[in-house]
Amino acid sequence: MAHSYEYKHANTQYSCRSHKHLCIEASSPSHAVALLALTIALMVVGAWISVPLGPVPFTLQTFALMLALMILPLRLSVAATACYLLLGAIGLPVFASMHGGLGIYFGPTGGFIWGFFLGMVIAGALCYALENVVHNFVVTRAIAGVVFSLVVHVCGLMQFMAVMHADIVKALMVTTAPFAVVDVLKIVVAVIVASAVVRALRHRAA
């Protein structure tokens, strides 16, 4: 049977519906803003850590997004992603290689950018739904991470094909194949880090 509890420490509230499911909840609007700012900062720093792998660079951007997906409640993770994409749209250098601007959304790799938001919504909603059925933090977060990655890659693949007039095989070789193993590793590490955060918060709540 699932148990519910809430624990308040300092300015942040940690809420949990079961011993397996924990997320960070802000206890006030100002604390929600602080959580959003921290999450967005992690996304920006992750994007700045960039290694060129052809037209699509390897970054830790998706790792930061997956952490937000796995730890924050849906409304905060979606809000953080939306704010991050808005900052990039107005021209701030928050994307890979310190780029920004609305033009990136319409370029060959723009699908990955708007795919972040779509992936966060779909994977976050799925994770929330699974928590009521699968009472296992690692399983629900791993599934959410896989779904998020798939949605992002599908969006990136579709726009790359449209902008570059490439067939699906060429597009897959450029946008997906080089990152398959890396993305799996990101999901695994994100689940490990999220689980460590959960254990630490649960220990403090005990």
What Rg is obtained from the alpha carbons, in whole angstroms? 17 Å
In total, how many beta strands?
5
Residue share in β-strands: 5-15%
| Spatial order of the strands forming the largest sheet | 1-2-3
Q: Distance between termini?
A: 18 Å
Stretches where pLDDT is under 50 for at least 5 consecutive residues are 1-22
The ordered H/E elements are EEEHEEHHHHHH
Instruction: Give the CA-based shape.
Output: globular
Q: Class, according to the CATH hierarchy?
A: Mainly Alpha
Structural class, please? mainly alpha
Number of H/I helices: 7
CATH topology: Arp2/3 complex 21 kDa subunit ARPC3
Number of domains: 1
CATH architecture: Orthogonal Bundle
Q: Determine the fraction of residues in helical runs and give it as a percent range.
A: 55-70%
Describe the biggest sheet? 3 strands, antiparallel
What would you say this structure looks like, in words?
The chain is mainly α. The protein has one domain (5-205): Arp2/3 complex 21 kDa subunit ARPC3, CATH 1.10.1760. It is 64% helix and 11% strand. It is built from seven helices and five strands. It has helices at 29-48, 61-71, 74-89, 110-131, 137-164, 168-175, 180-205; strands at 5-9, 12-18, 21-26, 50-51, 58-59. It has a three-stranded antiparallel beta sheet. Strands 4-5 form a two-stranded antiparallel ribbon. A hairpin with a 6-residue loop joins strand 4 (50-51) and strand 5. The longest helix is centred in the last third of the chain and has 28 residues, at 137-164. The protein is globular and about 50 Å long. The two termini are 18 Å apart. The model is unreliable at 1-22 (pLDDT under 50).
